[in-house]
Amino acid sequence: MRDAILVTGGSGFIGSNFILNWIECVGSPVVNLDLLTYAGNPANLSSLQGDPRYRFIRGDICDSELAGSLLREHQPCAIVHFAAESHVDRSIASPGAFLRTNVEGTCVLLEQARRYWSSLSLADQHAFRFLHISTDEVYGSLGPSDPPFIESAPYAPNSPYAASKAAADHFARAYFRTCGLPVLTTNCSNNYGPFQFPEKLIPLMILNALEGKPLPVYGDGLQVRDWLYVDDHCAAIRAVLQDGRAGETYHIGGSSERTNIHVVKAICDLVDEMVPPVSTGPRRNLIATVKDRPGHDRRYAMDTSKIRRELGWQPSIVFETGLRKTVRWYLDHPEWTEGVRTGAYLEWIQQNYTRRPER
Questions:
Q1: Which of 60, 136, 232, 297 is catalytic?
Q2: Candidate list 137, 169, 232, 257, residue with the active-site label
Q3: Is 54 annotated in the active site?
Q4: Does residue 161 carry a catalytic annotation?
Q5: CATH of domain 5-193+229-255+300-316+343-354
Q6: What single DSSP character describes residue 152?
Q7: Of 126, 143, 134, which is closest to residue 82 (Cα–Cα)?
Q8: What is the mean pLDDT of residues 302-321?
Q9: Edge-to-edge strand order for the sheet containing 183-188?
Q10: Average pLDDT, the chain
Q11: Per-domain residue ranges for the chain?
Q12: 33: nearest Cα among 52, 53, 15, 21
């Protein structure tokens, strides 16, 4: 077994940040398996072009033959499974895609990982890890005074997205309990930072505020989320891979609960500071409430005492600092934003990958 790791969905928001962090902090080889659907963007990892430590494979995690061949060829010491459909609104409109990618795809990877792991020496079996990346949404919604979710909290998913991730979590657990595959699961809170696709709250509000467009806020805007800067999430994943106990679940959160309306107003103020409005007035004036999302969870919060106690990880970036860094990044990278929003990167994928062999 080599020291390479296999990352699925590594061209997406969290996956690409993780790969960049891994190469910088660890330096061992990374194989990135990504289908490059709408939210997977090769430009996120353009800085690694030509780096011998990085290899990209365009492919589907539901392709069992491909997954198995990659494991045999690269002999990774770990799989870090990010690949997922993740937008709640999209799951309401098209739940089938979430069933296929999040449930079927995870099952395919687990089975191929089991077969590969079974072929390893006892020492390599002991060292191998399958890290399944999940979400706080599998637990449903908290009341205003409820304590944060702990790892043993009952599952109560309220959207097709959350239900698909809950099912994937259960399959991951089953492969550990039944097959002995050394699986770890992490459930994280809302991430934010560079390279996030602009359908999500923070980048959408940054870009709309910059352009003087309405800032749509669901309902009363008092939904509460625990915000986690993506670099802190990447550090937590590395800690879990290194020292986490097989079969365990670890919660990763930013200890930064904020209402959606608070986040939107903070973004308005930061954009006003960095790009003073000329004729529109304060960008808070652009905030407009819209009909609430069906089944919209009211509050998420994560109890991170287990990962702090066992692995010594805690978030290092407070929300105000992380949000400022995030707004600055989007303002400083208009070419990335333009490529994503116009679909130019999809045309680039079509030209560079669609007519080429996968490997």
A1: 136
A2: 137
A3: no
A4: yes
A5: 3.40.50.720
A6: T
A7: 134
A8: 98
A9: 54-58, 30-34, 5-8, 78-81, 129-135, 183-188, 249-252
A10: 93
A11: 5-193+229-255+300-316+343-354
A12: 15
pLDDT score of 346? 58
> What dihedral angle (degrees, nearest 10) is formed by the CA atoms of 22, 24, 26, 28?
80
C-alpha to C-alpha distance for 22 and 242, rounded to whole angstroms: 12
Question: In degrees, to the nearest 5, what angle opens at C-alpha 93 toward C-alphas 88 and 94?
Answer: 95
* DSSP letter assigned to residue 213: -
Alpha-carbon distances, residue 151 vs 106, 193, 242, 306 (angstroms) = 20, 25, 19, 8
Would you say 135 and 225 are in contact if contact means Cβ atoms under 8 Å apart?
no
Which one, of 264, 254, 263, 211, lies nearest residue 233 by Cα? 254
Is 151 one of the catalytic residues? Answer: no
Q: What does the pLDDT look like over 172-195, one tens digit per residue?
A: 999 999 999 999 999 999 999 999
Q: Write down the catalytic residue from 54, 161, 229, 330.
A: 161
For residue 270, what is the enclosing H or E element? Answer: helix 260-274
Give the distance, in angstroms, between the CA of residue 19 and the centroid of all CA atoms in the same chain: 12
